[in-house]
Amino acid sequence: MAARPSVLRAATRASRPCHSSINSYSRPAQRSFTTTTHNPRPEISSATTPNSPSHSQTPPPNDASRHGTTHFGFQDGLSESEKTERVAGVFHSVAESYDRMNDLMSFGWHRIWKDHFVSSLNPGLSSSLPPRPQRVLDVAGGTGDIAFRMLHHAHVVNHNPDVHVTISDINGSMLAVGKQRSLKLPASQQAALSFLEADATSIPPSVVPDNTFDLYTVAFGIRNFSNVPAALAEAYRVLKPGGVFACLEFSKVNSSLLDAVYKRWSFAAIPLIGQLVAGDRDSYQYLVESIERFPSQPDFRRMIREAGFEVGGQGWEDLTGGVAAIHKGMKPL
Ligand SMILES: C[S@@+](CC[C@H](N)C(=O)[O-])C[C@H]1O[C@@H](n2cnc3c(N)ncnc32)[C@H](O)[C@@H]1O
């Protein structure tokens, strides 16, 4: 596997003083910023087709990490590298159909959740003139849904053109779709966008130094990571003090009736739609199983705290009765 630079597109800026104005947290901090957009890591080039996992709706207990292994959907006992490789296989396989499938699987709800997620972070908000620059890292950014919304919100809603977003993902196929989609953005937004191919659990410090970003977002990505605490530690490392970690992820439904309907829909319909529309049942079976395996809202909040983040209030916001949830934390000043 030959090493090659995997930055698909880079808009580099010089280091400059910067101030986080993500409005969920009010404490400002002056700090310097370095944008790094070159990734010398080898690209993951082999896409393993995942084996068909158990189709039971009852996940095994979520204790795999205690035994030094992890899980892939309902299948336990995988090494972290095996899971990473299988997840890569899933997203290589679904990349082209991903955006269409998202709409079909969620009846378009994912757009509403993503809009809400981005507005709740209010990127680009600044009380000073000229507005303060911000650097955003959208991890597991895939085909760009969050990054594009961030740029629109910052540049158009908050009139702050000095907000730069880096879309980072382990998967070159998803990034390639994102890069293609980004060509439809206004030129100023394209110039404020970079792509970085990297594993969220081990972002090389030579590529993204400590204390680089004001905001770290991850949407519908973290449940796929082979080691969630390692990814949270990386989020902590790359954020500046005062920087915000924000995660949008499928979560635990808090009404038993809604839960029953939702489980029936996800386990019966989503793999079938995957088969009919994308010709890929197994990948979509994995996606619904991975949702089941993700920790509950209080457990995930505990993990965010254990990574060192300050968590205000309850620490999460349920969306659509807990089908999805937003968790936030702040790296202490
Ligand atoms: C369900 S998609 C979400 C994409 C996008 N954030 C969205 O909301 O539409 C999950 C993404 O996580 C990425 N991913 C999985 N494991 C990863 C890892 N270890 N590091 C970085 N990205 C990863 C996949 O390649 C995929 O693009």
UniProtKB/TrEMBL annotation:
Which keywords appear in this protein's UniProt record, sorted alphabetically? Ubiquinone
Q: Can you name this protein?
A: Ubiquinone/menaquinone
Organism this protein belongs to: Hypoxylon rubiginosum
